[in-house]
Amino acid sequence: FFHLQKKRRAATARRQHLKSAMLQLAVTEIEKEAAAKEVEKQNYLAEHCPPLSLPGSMQELQELCKKLHAKIESVDEERYDTEVKLQKTNKELEDLSQKLFDLRGKFKRPPLRRVRMSADAMLRALLGSKHKVCMDLRANLKQVKKEDTEKEKDLRDVGDWRKNIEEKSGMEGRKKMFEAGE
């Protein structure tokens, strides 16, 4: 009993140690990801936003401000356009998912029934009034005469099979079969 308790305690302690080790690894990974994002952000800003050089005169400062305002306006327009596109696509997705939900919920597929339909009726249904040709599938078949073969004649001559069985049944029939075999 004590041996089992020691094993359980050891397993629990090992599990706790593994959990703490996994948490420590997760914390270091999160810190690495945050640092990588910060470096990526700095690289992007250095590439797209060159350092600002402030001119000395008032006239040049005003021109610089006008340029910056024009850039800000163009970026805001782009942002607004993308937001509107995103809202439209989200609305379309919601509408389509609602339609799909409605179709799934309301309608059950009816069991299909077999319908006997001739080839003519099928073509009329598919082609409508354009269908004029009558499709008689047996029209072009070759006529075959039934010939009496020797086998068929033999079968007809045998007669009723019940008579043969009645003759062979009982001891007399067995005796006849035995005598015929010799």
TrEMBL record:
| Alphabetical UniProt keywords | Acetylation, Actin-binding, Coiled coil, Muscle protein
Q: Which GO terms describe its molecular function?
A: actin binding
Q: Which GO terms describe its biological process?
A: cardiac muscle contraction; skeletal muscle contraction
* GO terms under cellular component: troponin complex
Q: Which chain positions lie within coiled-coil regions?
A: 27-106
Role noted for this protein: Troponin I is the inhibitory subunit of troponin, the thin filament regulatory complex which confers calcium-sensitivity to striated muscle actomyosin ATPase activity.
Instruction: Relate the assembly described in the record.
Output: Binds to actin and tropomyosin.
Q: Which family does it belong to?
A: Belongs to the troponin I family.
Would you tell me the protein name for this molecule? Troponin I, fast skeletal muscle
- Species name for this entry? Neopipo cinnamomea
Lineage, top ranks: Eukaryota, Metazoa, Chordata, Craniata, Vertebrata
